Amino acid sequence: MKINIIGGGPAGLYFAILMKKANAAHRIKIHERNGPDDTFGWGVVFSGKTLANLRAADAESHAQITKQFEAWDNVDVVHHDAKISIHGNSFSGIARLQLLKILQRRAEELGVEIEYRSEIQDAESLKNDCDVLLAADGVNSTVRLRYAEQFQPELDVRTNRYIWYGTNQLFHGLTLTFRENDAGVFAAHSYKFNSSTSTFIVECDPNTWEQAGFAQLGDEQTREYLGNVFAVDLNGQPLLSNNSKWINFLLVKNKNWFFENVVLIGDALHTAHFSIGSGTKLAMEDAIALADAFHERTDVDEALTNFTSKRRPVIQDYQAAAFESMVWFENAARYMGLSPLELAYSLMTRSGRVSYEDLKRRAPEFIRLYEAG
Ligand SMILES: Cc1cc2nc3c(=O)[nH]c(=O)nc-3n(C[C@H](O)[C@H](O)[C@H](O)COP(=O)(O)OP(=O)(O)OC[C@H]3O[C@@H](n4cnc5c(N)ncnc54)[C@H](O)[C@@H]3O)c2cc1C
Fold first, then answer.
1. Ligand 1: which of 249, 274, 315, 318 to mutate, most ligand atoms within 8 Å of CB?
2. Residue with the nearest Cα to atom 35 of ligand 1?
């Protein structure tokens, strides 16, 4: 089979690896607009369950990924200067760049061709020159836009703003920190992803953003402002920028996941709010599901139909949970009157996927403290 891929992020690279591994005769080419060492952002997280899926799909890349990991089992909630730790949540962090390097190397070892600095403006000629065209070109997918009539995307720009920084302050666990000033409420989502660096994402509602005057502040001033808001938490460490910009979260869904021989995966197909940390997981698990569909059937239409019918319910479940989580953060100001323990409980159960019973089993100490009140 001849496969063209647009986008060398986790979704495109992992699909290429799995297809080439299954059949070395496949001719696979990835077009990636960036160079091999360019990336945005800092670290990404995986749950223990995702890691088991990655191991089953490709033990070689799994071994490389887990070698570089920083692991933890706690969510920490910081509110009114108190830190509440909830254990029983196994997660690991890795730098996005490290992850991409591992996947790039593995793909090239297997014989996948990657053309860097190759930005595809119009997918039509690539589409006509292959058996399958994979659109793995991320949240602002040009393929999705080009064939909008066929995919019928539903795009929802949310009102909260967020910005993705790094810092050398180490957060041992997924740490959710809430700080208030005259402008409003700021939430930080942070976790370490190597021995010296953490991801530090700051989110706030549009009123807070306006009141803080971010529209008039440049990169350095914004970091200084947020460094002051989170001064206690950052312990004197500066916020590090990597072309960091304020973004509105874009919720992506598509009515049709494929047409003819063109299929969407990863962020191009769907997004889930970063507060449940599953964008990379979903992108790579999409790749596993799509590669599995091709192992079962070689007919392209049948394989794509099969992929859609098996994967859609899983994605719908994730998006539903992520939606609840996103709405919680959009309304964070409402919860600021809660005590730290009450806030932690509200956060842990926000997506509807973790119940009181789950917490009692997984984090008995937290529930004991919560009930003691
Ligand atoms: C603030 C924030 C925090 C996040 N935190 C986490 C987290 O903790 N855990 C997690 O799992 N995920 C997280 N994510 C999500 C994660 O970054 C994405 O969901 C994931 O990278 C999706 O993979 P992808 O391969 O579909 O897309 P991408 O990683 O976006 O890759 C798409 C690739 O396509 C390329 N491309 C785009 N257009 C073209 C074109 N026309 N021609 C050629 N190439 C093109 C791009 O350069 C890019 O390399 C976070 C996202 C954000 C914004």
1. 274
2. 7
Q: Say yes or no to pLDDT of 298 above 90.
A: no
Residues in the chain: 373
Per the structure block, which two tokens stand in for 94? 């890795």
Report which protein residue has its CA nearest ligand 1's atom 3.
Answer: 274
Query: Is the CB of residue 283 less than 8 Å from the CB of residue 14?
Result: yes
For residue 321, what are the contacts with CB-CB under 8 A and spacing of at least 6?
A: 272, 276, 351, 352, 353
Report angle CA 97, 329, 229 to the nearest 5 degrees. Answer: 75
43: left (phi over 0), alpha (psi -120 to 50) or beta: beta
* Cα–ligand 1 centroid distance for 267 (angstroms): 6
The Cα 356–Cα 50 span in angstroms is 23
Give the DSSP letter of residue 165: E
Rounded to an integer, what distance in angstroms lies between the CA atom of residue 311 and that of residue 283?
12
Query: Tell me, what's the pLDDT at 70?
Result: 85
Which residues are within 8 A (CB) of 135 and not within 5 positions of it... i.e. 6 or more apart? 6, 7, 123, 141, 143, 144, 262, 263, 264, 265, 268
Tell me the C-alpha distance between 183 and 185, whole Å.
7
pLDDT tens digits, one per residue of 153-174 = 999 999 999 999 999 999 999 9
- pLDDT, position 228: 98
Residue given tokens 């995702």 in the structure block: 50
For the segment 214-230, what is each residue's pLDDT rounded down to a tens digit? 999 999 999 999 999 99
What whole-number percentage of the chain has pLDDT above 90? Answer: 89
Q: Write down the pTM of the prediction.
A: 0.95
